[in-house]
Write a structure and sequence with these properties.
- This protein is an alpha/beta fold.
- It folds into two domains: about 230 residues, Rossmann fold (3-Layer(aba) Sandwich), CATH 3.40.50.720; about 70 residues, TATA-Binding Protein (2-Layer Sandwich).
- Helix content is about 35%, strand content about 20%.
- Strand 4, helix 8 and strand 5 form a beta-alpha-beta unit.
- Helix 4 runs parallel beside helix 6.
C-alpha cells in the first residue's frame, strides 16, 4: 500500500479488527448499491470513503427538491437540472475518492436486466424503496449464492439484516416470520433524515465485514431502531425450512412471474415500463413543444406538464407520470404523448 493510500485510510486501519490486511481486501473488493435514494446515497458515500475498490450505483429516478431533506449526496443544482440520481451520485462519489472506480447506471432493475446489472460484484446493498425490487434482488442473490444486505426505513424507524444465502434466512424467510414487516411508506407517514443515515451506517458496517474478509464478525441478527423513541432491538431470525426461495428455490420474481410495483415512494406517481424501447429525446421534445407546457430536458430525460399531470420520460422508454396513482390514467397519457 503506497504512502498516499496509507494516509487516506490511516484512521480506519488503526481499527484493529480491520487493520492493513482488511483495508487491502476492501481496495480489491466490489459492491453494487441498488437504489440511490436516501439509504442508498448514504451507503454509497460511506463505501467510497472506506475505499471499496469498485462501486456500481443503480437508480431509475431523478433528483427533486423534496429529496434534499434526506438524500445527502445531492444538492440544489442537481434538483434544478433534474439530474438522474445515478449520474449525480457518480459525479459526487468520484470527487470524494478518485481512486474508487464508480459507475452510475440509470436503470430500473427488472428480471430482464438483473443478471447484467448485478453479476460480478462481491456484495449487493439495498437502497430501494419497494419490496418487489428487494424480492428480485433476493431471488438473484439466492440463485447465485451472493451475499446482500437488506435495509429499509420509514418515518423514524428502520431495519437492516445481512443475508448470506445458505447460512442465514433470506428475505422471504424474514418477511414470512413477520419480524420485518413494514406496511407504511414514506409517501404516507414521511421519513426523517436521521433514520436513513443510521440504517445506512448499520448496513455498511456489515458490508465492511464481508468485503474485508471478516465474516466471522457478522452478528447475524435483524437490527431495528427508532431515532424518535430511542428504541433499539436485535432479533435472531431462523431460516424457514419450507421457504419457497432458499429452500425450494422457486424464483418467481427472477422469472418475471410477479407483477412489478409501479407506484413510487414519496410522490403521487406511476412509473411506466417500456423495456425494449429507445427514445430520441431531442426529436420527442420538438414534437411535443407546441402542445405541452414547461418542456425541459437534458441528455438523460425530458420533462413536461400536461396539467394536472407532469411527465418525465427517460431514453430507455420509461416514464414517470406524476399526479395520479391510477395505472390506466398513466398508460393513457403515455400512449397519447409518447406513443403506443
Amino acid at each position: 500500500m503506497d504512502q498516499q493510500l496509507d494516509e487516506r485510510y490511516s484512521r480506519q486501519m488503526l481499527f484493529a479488527e480491520l487493520g492493513e490486511a482488511g483495508q487491502k481486501r476492501l481496495l480489491a473488493s466490489s459492491a453494487v448499491v441498488v437504489g440511490c435514494g436516501a439509504i442508498g446515497a448514504a451507503a454509497a458515500n460511506l463505501l467510497v470513503r472506506a475505499g471499496v475498490g469498485r462501486l456500481r450505483v443503480l437508480d431509475r429516478d431523478f433528483v427533486e427538491p423534496s429529496n434534499l431533506q434526506r438524500q445527502a449526496l445531492f444538492d440544489e443544482a442537481d434538483a434544478r437540472e433534474a439530474l438522474p440520481k445515478a449520474v449525480a451520485a457518480e459525479r459526487k462519489l468520484r470527487a470524494i475518492n478518485s481512486a474508487v472506480a464508480v459507475e452510475g447506471v440509470v436503470a430500473d432493475l427488472n428480471p430482464d436486466n438483473v443478471q447484467e446489472l448485478l453479476a460480478g460484484f462481491d456484495l449487493i446493498l439495498d437502497g430501494t424503496d419497494n419490496f418487489e425490487t428487494r424480492f428480485l434482488v433476493n431471488d438473484f442473490a439466492v440463485q447465485h449464492g451472493r451475499p446482500w444486505i437488506y435495509a429499509a426505513a420509514v418515518a423514524s424507524y428502520g431495519v437492516s439484516l445481512a443475508i448470506r444465502p445458505g447460512i442465514t434466512p433470506c428475505l422471504a424467510c424474514l418477511l414470512e416470520s413477520g419480524a420485518a414487516a413494514m406496511e407504511e411508506t414514506c409517501d404516507t407517514v414521511g421519513v426523517l433524515g436521521a433514520i436513513v443515515n443510521l440504517v445506512a451506517s448499520l448496513e455498511v458496517g456489515e458490508a465492511l465485514k464481508l468485503l474485508a474478509g471478516r465474516a466471522d464478525a457478522l452478528h447475524g441478527r435483524l437490527i431495528s431502531c427508532d431515532v424518535w423513541s430511542g428504541r433499539m432491538q436485535s432479533v435472531r431470525v431462523a431460516r424457514n425450512p419450507e421457504c419457497a426461495v432458499c429452500a425450494r428455490r422457486e424464483f418467481r420474481y427472477l422469472e418475471g412471474a410477479a407483477q412489478p410495483h409501479i407506484t413510487m415512494c414519496g410522490r403521487d406517481s406511476v412509473q411506466i415500463h417500456e423495456r425494449s424501447r429507445q427514445l430520441d429525446l431531442a426529436a420527442l421534445r420538438a414534437r411535443l413543444a407546441p402542445s405541452v407546457a414547461e418542456v425541459r430536458s437534458n441528455e438523460f430525460l425530458l420533462r413536461f406538464r400536461v396539467p394536472p399531470y407532469e411527465m418525465t420520460v427517460f431514453t430507455d422508454g420509461r416514464a414517470i407520470i406524476k399526479g395520479t396513482k391510477d395505472p390506466a390514467v398513466a398508460r393513457s397519457l403515455y400512449a397519447r404523448y409518447i406513443g403506443a
